[in-house]
Amino acid sequence: MASSPRPTLHRILSRLLAPGRGEVRAMEDALHLAGVLRFVGIFLATIVLPALMLGWIGIRSIRGSELDLQADARRQGEVAARAFADSLDRRFVAFEQELTTRLEAGRFGFDSPRELHPDLVVSLGFDADLQLDAPFRAEEPLRTLSGGPLDMRAWRAADRIAREDGDPQRAEAALLQAEGLLARADEQARARFDRGRLLLLGEHAAQGEALLRQLALQHGALRDPWGFRYADLVALKLGERAMAQDPDQGGVAMRALVDQLLAEPWTVGFGGEGAIARRALSLAEAHQDADWVSSARGRVASRSAMLYWTEQLLPEFDPAAAWTDLEGIRPGTARWRTGSRALWAATRWEDGLYAHAFNLESLTARLATEARVSMPADSPIKLQLLGPDDPEPAELVERRSLQPQLAGWSVAVTLRDPAALRAEQGRQRVLRFGIVALAVGTIALGFTTSIRMIGRELDVARMKADFAASVSHELRSPITQIRLKGESLMLGLADTEEEQQAAYHAIVRESERLSRLVDNVLDFAAIERGAKRYTLRPGELGESVRRALVSMESSLEFKEMSLEVIIPDDLPDVHHDADAVVQCVINLVSNAAKYSADGETVRIVARAAEGELRGKVQPLVEVSVIDNGIGIAAHDLRQIFEPFFRSRDSLARRRKGTGIGLTITQYIMEAHGGDIQVTSKPGKGSTFTLRFPLEPPPEDAASGRAPARPSARRKPTGA
Ligand code: ADP
Question: What is the dotted CATH code of the domain comprising 69-138+317-416?
Answer without folding.
Answer: 3.40.1840.10
